[in-house]
Amino acid sequence: MADTATQSSDGVLFQTELRPNRSSTPGAIRKLALVLCVALVPAGLVFVYVGAWPVFGFLGLEIVALVTLLNYHHKRSYVIERIAITINELRVERINPWGQRSEWSFKRHWLQVNLDESSQRDCALELRSHGRALVIGAFLAPDERRKVARSLRDALHAEAQSNPTLGQSRPNTFRMV
């Protein structure tokens, strides 16, 4: 997560980019596939030698299935969520692993940043305004979601404190859960 809290030329007061943690790279997946082949092909040949030749085919299928699933998992980790706070709104842009973009916009004066911690192990971070809700950071760990929620609340609150007319025109919508 990268935060920027300075005002830019396009009126963005705060922005952050959320990305899932990637534990592997395409090169690491290739190296793992190579190690599996080096280990399992000789084992499969031993089974062929003793007459259990179908085992060799199933070992090959297992390698193909494992590498395919690792590549799929790696590809799915390329989701990006960009959050930007301007004077009037909070914008969320989500780019899925296949490059499709979705955008949402909320009036920042009435925005609630809710963190549902009903479960000990998990929590949901949602932005809510006027009956609309959007869950963000679903791929983050619970501690990371808490940090994002705190950052968003601080950014929204800081702007309201620095601009007294904003603080008078809206009620306190920050809810600590």
Description:
With 177 residues, the chain is α+β, with helices and mostly antiparallel strands. It has two domains: 2-21 and 81-169, PH-domain like; 26-76. It contains four helices and eight strands. The protein has helices spanning 26-49, 54-76, 142-162, 164-169; strands at 2-4, 12-18, 80-86, 89-95, 101-107, 112-116, 124-129, 132-136. A hairpin with a 2-residue loop joins strand 7 and strand 8 (132-136). Helix 1 runs antiparallel to helix 2 (54-76). The longest helix has 24 residues, at 26-49. The radius of gyration is 24 Å and the shape is elongated.
Please give a handful of descriptors for the protein shown.
3-stranded antiparallel sheet; alpha+beta; 27% strand; 2 domains; PH-domain like; disordered C terminus; 8 strands; single chain; 177 residues; elongated; 4 helices
CATH topology of the largest domain: PH-domain like
Helical content band: 40-55%
Q: Shape from CA axes? A: elongated
Q: How far from one another are the termini?
A: 22 Å
Can you lay out the helices and strands and say which pair or pack?
Blueprint: E1 2-4, E2 12-18, H1 26-49, H2 54-76, E3 80-86, E4 89-95, E5 101-107, E6 112-116, E7 124-129, E8 132-136, H3 142-162, H4 164-169
Antiparallel strand pairs: 1-2, 2-3, 3-4, 4-5, 6-7, 7-8
Helix pairs in contact: 1-2
